[in-house]
Amino acid sequence: MAIVSPVNTAPGERRRLALQNPATLEPIGEIEVQTIDDATAAVEIARKAQVEWGSLPISERARYLQRTLETLLERQDDIIDTVLRETGKTRTEALQMEVFAVGDSLNYYAKNAARILRPEKRTLHGILRVLKQLRIIYRPLGVVGVISPWNGPFVLSMNPCLQALIAGNAVILKPSEITPFSGLLAAEIFAAAGLPDGLFQVLTGDGETGAALTRAGVDKVSFTGSVETGRKVAVACAEQLIPCTLELGGKDAMIVCEDANLDYAAGGAVAGAFMNTGQYCCGTERVYVVESVAEEFTRKVVDCVSELRQGSDGEFDVGAIFWPRQLEIIEEHMADAVERGAKVLTGGRRNPDLEGLFYEPTVLTNVDHGMKIMRDETFGPILPIMRVSDEEAAIAHANDSRYGLGGNVWTRDTSKGVRIAQRMQSGSVCVNDMTMTYGIQEAPFGGLKQSGIGQVNGETGLRGYCHAEPIIVDRRGGKMSADRYPYSAKTDAGMQKFMKLLWGTGIGRWLS
Ligand code: NDP
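^ Those are the sequences you sent over. The predicted structure of the assembly is below.
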């Protein structure tokens, strides 16, 4: 069984891939694998289109985003249908994670990009303040390559692209080979909103196409995907000395304190682990619960999981695994955990009642860090719960990971929750909530350790699609330059006296 399979082509013809719906196994179409020549040609087109776009006022570019938002509202059923066909996720998840999240992002950047990217005057420190003026101009980089994964095929394509666009760049998107139609739909939506030709292009294909895009002459790569591929992208960018952001995998920990509201925490654990069938970069992949409340918490989690409905038709809560490779990883982690003594409280197998790629929502206990399920990214509907003696032990275990993307803490004492969050080695942490950071437009999002480099979203992310150019203006019209030469011992001595006055006396320190 394959969800993406090569199509037989004649010698000299382009490679083609055939796709199937993972929930129903029905064929859903074919794509062409585009090559380095296609990528290079796309960059040439993009570079021409960017010139005029980059010189438009941001308010003008914002109008295109506003129209894209209107188109998104009109075409939301198309988006949901496309995402469902490609992924087999639930309709509610497609609506919330793909349509709503993109709408919110379009609305936020249309309204706020002009403020975030407006030229700034910054006051200088000390004596320099009277001599020089500093302005910062945010200049678009040129052509940005966006490479996206399959787990959020529309949102993880649209969100970086729309930010790069409003910052004044042209964009070339390479969506995952498993979910190319969401990327192609993004192009249709931008075109329907009137975005000028050439500013947004999509390259379809597999890893070959992704690698080609990184080497086709783009000015930045915004990559979302696995650690392994991220490393290859980083190498390609380093070799060409172009910047990249890498949003990579995670193994998010949840800490349940003794004073947590256990009903809320159990609900948070279930949503964190099973949303998007666990295929969520910030999904909860391991829980550390304090011994004294572990039994009650675990019972509540299992009760909640037993109510979940899995399916592909009508109303259901947990969808499919999006492709066979992921199912293999889930089964490998489960087999390793069970062999090492993990106890399966519910689930633990492929769903025998459903034909497509379905794995039952699973809760495990008796787990430890010798198991893959606690160390490696599983990216599936598995919730391993580990009992710990106290909160200190929970923090130590949470930090015992090569990943550092997100995490969450549950306690009735918010100040304590924030203190614990500060000690977790994670790019972001939620207190009494989970998986939210990517959806908060103002929050910079990115991982520590092997979970990534750089941040996307918010002011930091948007400015990351620009070069922040400092422009220094001499307040005396350049007179100082005329007085610079000749160098002499006298001017050096004057400089030394000046430093002594500035940093060696009370009045000087006050002035500087
Ligand atoms: P992959 O790393 O396999 O693929 C990501 C993208 O890179 C795909 O478009 C892929 O193409 C492309 N690609 C493959 N090889 C290369 C290459 N040599 N050079 C450039 N691009 C290449 O990730 P998945 O698609 O499997 O996504 C799941 C992973 O993404 C998980 O680890 C998850 O945690 C992470 N992720 C991280 C997020 C974050 O924000 N931190 C958010 C969402 C997911 P193709 O698919 O066609 O092979």
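The domain at 252-442 is CATH 3.40.309.10 (Aldehyde Dehydrogenase; Chain A, domain 2). Residues 147-152, 156, 174, 176-178, 206-207, 210-211, 214, 224-226, 229, 232-233, 247-250, 281, 377, 379, 405, 447, 452 surround NDP (CB under 6 Å).

Shout if you want it in another format.
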